[in-house]
């Protein structure tokens, strides 16, 4: 059994397990004078403890049924240890293994769902996105594997991107979404505190705010614009529209991963950001990844008929 670091622990467990049962039987044997229902003297002894003047504590023998139950429990324990794996390396007469049971159940499960997934094998992601059955599966997979970070409505939160707003850090094509799910993503903005002081960062933040039409101080925006050109355009672009190949967000659209306040932007500039989406190719099957891709893609690519009905004003100026 690979669970043990070395052979010693297997023996240790076996000895403790058998020793425990033997000890229980030995205890019963040495205390056998308490087992008979009628004591030899014919009179129940007392323990010598007396309360309230006349309340005596009797020392009644254990009832016979109790003794039998005790013995049966010992016999059951020995039988169990013989049949099941409980003695260190010993695999048990029945050869039961919980790992194998899980593997069998998983294989059975995979077999049962194969025909359901087979239907989607030849379909494209946009086609799957329109299939009500696939959307149901996609939503369930999302709630199980993705919602803890992206929220049950996929609208994200601070540091977790909104997947339903049509705005993408890395890209919203089916291929890119699939790659994100499979391989994960690592969004890194380097810290600038060695090159930029807090006052300068504040000015740059004012300029960044002006890019998406938020209120900003014109004098500071003017100063910040110059520094933005020096430090930020390599990733966020000359126009601040970002670069999906680097996962550098568009700063002009008023969609914020962290927040739009000057303090939050200054924090991002001085301390940088290090954000990780875990890879899922070892957790989900290729079929599940395809359905999830379609579900996520479908959130911002609704079929026209649905679009009319589903896009409310609140949703169309998507998140902030
Ligand atoms: C542990 C938290 C976590 C889980 C679980 C998680 N994600 Fe993410 N996801 C993130 C973070 C953080 C990012 C942003 C990465 C970055 O900043 O570049 C992200 C980014 C993404 C993106 C890219 C968004 C964009 O704008 O380009 C997609 C698509 C995505 N996740 C889908 C999913 C799906 C589908 C699942 C479930 C299979 C999932 N995520 C599970 C944390 C998570
Ligand atoms: C090396 C590339 C790179 C440089 C240079 C860079 N950034 Fe970034 N920036 C990123 C990446 C990547 C992210 C996304 C981080 C994440 O996924 O969490 C980001 C995120 C941000 C955010 C958060 C946006 C939001 O939606 O909350 C702001 C604001 C920002 N950068 C501003 C700046 C400013 C201002 C500068 C110049 C001082 C700068 N960046 C320089 C790569 C860069």
What does this 3D model show about the protein?
- This is Cbb3-type cytochrome c oxidase subunit.
- Heme c 1 binds at residues 146, 149-150, 277.
- Component of the cbb3-type cytochrome c oxidase.
- The chain crosses the membrane at residues 7-29, 65-83.
- Its cofactor is heme c.
- It is elongated and about 105 Å long.
- The protein has 14 helices and four strands.
- A two-stranded antiparallel sheet has the order 1-2.
- With 320 residues, it is mainly alpha-helical.
- The protein folds into three domains: 8-83, no CATH class; 113-184 and 279-313, Cytochrome c-like domain (Cytochrome Bc1 Complex, Chain D, domain 2, Orthogonal Bundle), CATH 1.10.760; 187-277, Cytochrome Bc1 Complex, Chain D, domain 2, CATH 1.10.760.
- Residues 305-320 have low confidence and may be disordered.
- The chain has helices at residues 7-30, 64-83, 98-118, 125-129, 132-145, 147-150, 174-183, 198-211, 218-231, 233-236, 262-271, 286-300, 304-310, 313-316; strands at residues 46-51, 55-58, 185-189, 273-277.
- Helix 7 (174-183) packs across helix 12.
- One heme C is lined by residues 145-146, 148-150, 159-161, 163, 168-171, 177, 180-181, 185, 187, 247, 275-278, 280, 292, 296.
């Amino acid at each position: 059994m690979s669970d043990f670091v070395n052979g010693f622990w297997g023996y240790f467990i076996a000895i403790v397990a058998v020793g425990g049962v033997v000890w229980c039987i030995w205890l019963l044997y040495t205390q056998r004078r308490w087992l008979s229902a009628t004591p030899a003297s014919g009179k129940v002894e007392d323990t010598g403890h007396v309360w309230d003047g006349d309340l005596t504590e009797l020392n009644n023998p254990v009832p016979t049924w109790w003794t039998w139950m005790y013995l049966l429990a010992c016999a059951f324990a020995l039988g169990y240890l013989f049949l099941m794996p409980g003695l260190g390396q010993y695999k048990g007469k029945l050869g039961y293994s919980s790992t194998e049971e899980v593997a069998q159940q998983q294989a059975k499960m995979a077999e049962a769902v194969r025909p359901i997934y087979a239907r989607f094998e030849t379909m494209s992601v946009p086609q799957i996105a329109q299939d009500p059955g696939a959307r149901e599966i996609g939503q369930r997979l999302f709630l199980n594997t993705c919602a803890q970070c992206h929220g049950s409505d996929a609208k994200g939160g601070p540091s977790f991107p909104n997947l339903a707003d049509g705005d993408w850090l890395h890209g919203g094509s089916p291929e890119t979404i699939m790659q994100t799910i499979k391989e994960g993503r690592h969004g890194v903005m380097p810290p600038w505190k060695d090159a930029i002081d807090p006052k300068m960062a504040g000015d740059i933040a004012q300029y960044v705010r002006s890019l998406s039409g938020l209120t900003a101080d014109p004098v500071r925006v003017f100063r910040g614009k110059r520094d933005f050109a020096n430090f930020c355009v390599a990733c966020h672009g000359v126009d601040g529209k970002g670069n999906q190949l680097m996962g550098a967000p568009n700063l002009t659209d008023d969609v914020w991963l962290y927040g739009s306040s000057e303090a939050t932007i200054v924090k991002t500039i001085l301390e940088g950001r290090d954000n990780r989406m875990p890879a899922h190719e070892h957790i989900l099957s290729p079929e599940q990844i395809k359905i999830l891709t379609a579900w996520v893609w479908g959130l911002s690519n609704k079929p026209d008929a649905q679009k009319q009905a589903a896009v409310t004003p609140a949703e169309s100026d998507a998140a902030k």
